[in-house]
Amino acid sequence: MKKKHRKLQTKENLIVFPGMIENLIADGLAFAENNNYVKAAECFDIVKQYTELDDMIISVYVLTLLETRRYLEAKEICEELMEKKSPIAEQIVEIYLTILLDLKEYKEVDNLLNLLLADDNISDERKMNFEQLKDLSSRLALEQTTFTEEAEIEIVHLEKEKFALDVFTKLSFMEQELLLQRAFVQNISEVTIEISEIVECEKVSSSIRTIALLVLGEAGVTKEVTVSKFGIKEKVNPADLPSPKAVDRMDSIDLLVEEILEQDPSKLALTSGLVRRHAYALFPFDWLGYDDKEIAQAYVNFVEVLFGEENKQQDDLYELIKLVEDSVEIGEDE
């Protein structure tokens, strides 16, 4: 009597031996567990040629694609899952947002967050996080646009009348920023008093007042101005600003953030952007009483909370970061 053999599965003349798929899946999961995402992705790449991945495996596969910077492939899978309303679609949302941020597709980020904010099934706490994430991505988009526009700016005549405080405060945030950016390459002797008044006016956003103070410093103005920000009030000489200050510490903090988030490029971009905006908002002061490592970890925690993770740090530093972020939002919305 002849022994019956199970028919081997083939694909494009390749033989798939029994247990091969299961072994590849197990290897892929093990590689992913050990953060070897390249090898993990290779395993799942082979498996998907022969069989449809189940929800648990596909979520790990998307993560490996994200970690190996295969953003377009990961994006396509996420969109398919969300379109067919997969049971894991809700879990995929944060990964999909991460991919869009990495690809700098800020309009798509905005559209998705608008849908999530309108979803009654999402908790108020998560919606609050999504709101803040929306503001952050909007500012990244704005910075990208502003950088492009600034590269094309021609030196124009000094618009003296716009520096008068009653006129300046009626300009939009972008108009104020552009006016002061142009002042860096102009003779400001005729508007030194007006720019000093801008620095001292608490109705003007902290970030704009920082630029105004730097303009005075660049021009060598030595007359003291009174700066009041986030509960700190001091007289400072624009040409001899106090140290240490947030802008000087920014690069050091940025390097520490990069060490923490080297495997998470999208959160890294958001966190670095947040640190830089806050450094300029705080200037000429800084995160008093905290060292660079504490500050870097606090900003990473703040961004992780926006992505729905548990808040591990509710202390004075966290409250300061939130206060500065709220002030930046208000300033840019005006």
What's the rounded overall pLDDT mean?
80
Distance from N terminus to C terminus (CA atoms, Å) equals 87 Å
Query: Which runs of at least 5 residues are low in confidence (pLDDT < 50)?
Result: 1-15, 147-155
Reported for the largest beta sheet, the result is: 2 strands, antiparallel
Shape: elongated
Keywords for this structure?
334 residues, 63% helix, two-stranded antiparallel sheet, two-stranded antiparallel ribbon, disordered N terminus, elongated, 15 helices, mainly alpha
Set down the secondary structure blueprint.
Layout: E1 9-11, E2 14-16, H1 20-33, H2 37-50, H3 55-67, H4 71-83, H5 89-102, H6 106-117, H7 124-151, H8 165-168, H9 173-183, H10 192-200, H11 206-218, E3 225-229, E4 232-236, H12 246-260, H13 265-282, H14 292-306, H15 316-333
Antiparallel strand pairs: 1-2, 3-4
Helix pairs in contact: 1-2, 2-3, 3-4, 3-5, 4-5, 5-13, 6-7, 9-11, 10-11, 11-13, 12-13, 12-14, 13-14, 13-15, 14-15
Q: Can you put this structure into words, describing what you see?
A:
There is one protein chain. With 334 residues, the protein is mainly alpha-helical. The protein is built from 15 helices and four strands. The strands form two sheets. Strands 1-2 form a two-stranded antiparallel ribbon. The protein has a two-stranded antiparallel sheet with strand order 3-4. Strand 1 (9-11) and strand 2 form a beta hairpin.
Please outline what is shown here.
It contains 15 helices and four strands.
